[in-house]
Amino acid sequence: MRILLQTPPALLLPAKGSGLLSCPTLQTGCIFIVVLLVPLSPSSGCPAICTCSSGEVNCMDRRLFLVPDDLPANATAILLDYNSIAVLRNHIFLNQHTLVRLSLHNNIIMSIHSQALVGLGELQELDLSGNFLSNLLPETFFPVPSLTTLNLGNNKLVSLNPELLGALPHLQTLSLHGNALTLLSSAFFENLPALRSFKLDDNSWVCTCGIQPLFQWLTDNVDKVPDVKSVSCKLPDVFAQYPIIDIGNKSFVHCHEPWLLPQDYSFFLLIGPSCFLGSICICALVGLIAVACTKMWMGSHTYHGPPPATRAERARRPTYG
Question: What is the pTM of this model?
């Protein structure tokens, strides 16, 4: 009797030279596991209202009022321009550890919470231009130490804390044009060691003694300010539209003069004690006059009847009994 050896079914034996994954049963199981795990990855999703491609998340002009919560974690660029976002909430970008560029141009942002940019340690470009920012907390940019380009142009900023940019040692391009700034302190410029380009035009610069730090910085860094002649005074009226860099050092000579000159001290030393002694004399004279007037008034109201009778007179008076 012949024994026929049948070849095992192909579905149960792997092909020659292939691994175990060639088994359809194992393949199906692996695929099922992958499908289950993929939704758990925060980097795979894309907000339905945006479009995502090659690491760029485009949410421009989508009538957004808030930054989407489901931004992919593997994004390298997020564009949120031309929306109606008014506030950047705390930790809204907490998962965007690979983000390099963030643009929020032309929104209505009025407030940035102190921890809004936490998680953006690799961010290099930040565009906040065309918003309604009037004040920035000193710690606003602490979470983005790698920032090289910052655009704050066309906002409502009236002042900038010197510590605001202290955490940005790599900042190379800074735009502050189109705000309401009146002056910048010398400490502000000390925190910009790597700055190469600085836009400052179209602000409300007040050209008094307080503008000297800006004048000095412009004089020493003309090559870093595009169209430096457009950085001009707005007040006082005599300097309106006058380029700050053309003011000249002589205009600030009086700013270093002491408040009181030697002749002023002499005047106070002579006149001061004299006025003091004079005031004492006047007070004493007024006191004497007041005492004299009091005595005169009391004298005019004294009783003027007959004097009291003596003892002899009282003895001679008749008695009735």
Answer: 0.69
Domain layout of the chain by residue ranges: 40-204
CATH domain 40-204 topology: 3.80.10
| Sequence letter at residue 148 | T
Q: Beta-strand (E) ranges in the chain?
A: 51-53, 56-58, 77-79, 87-88, 101-103, 111-112, 125-127, 149-151, 173-175, 197-199
DSSP string of 65-100? SS--TT--TT-SEEE--SS---EE-TTTTTT-TT--
Residue 270's SS3 state is helix
Q: Which residues have C-beta within 8 Å of that of residue 202, sequence separation ≥ 6?
A: 177, 178, 179, 230
Dist. CA 98–CA 55, nearest whole Å: 10
What single DSSP character describes residue 131? S
The answer to whether 45 touches 24, Cβ cutoff 8 Å, is no
Rounded CA-CA distance 67/94 in Å is 12
Task: Please state, in angstroms and rounded to a whole number, the distance separating the CA atoms of residues 280 and 303.
Answer: 38
Tens of pLDDT along the chain (321 residues) come to 333 334 343 433 344 444 444 444 444 444 334 333 433 344 558 999 999 999 999 999 999 999 999 999 999 999 999 999 999 999 999 999 999 999 999 999 999 999 999 999 999 999 999 999 999 999 999 999 999 999 999 999 999 998 999 989 999 999 999 999 999 999 999 989 999 999 999 999 999 999 999 999 999 999 999 989 999 999 999 889 999 999 988 888 888 766 555 555 555 566 767 777 777 878 788 877 877 777 777 766 655 556 666 666 666 666 554
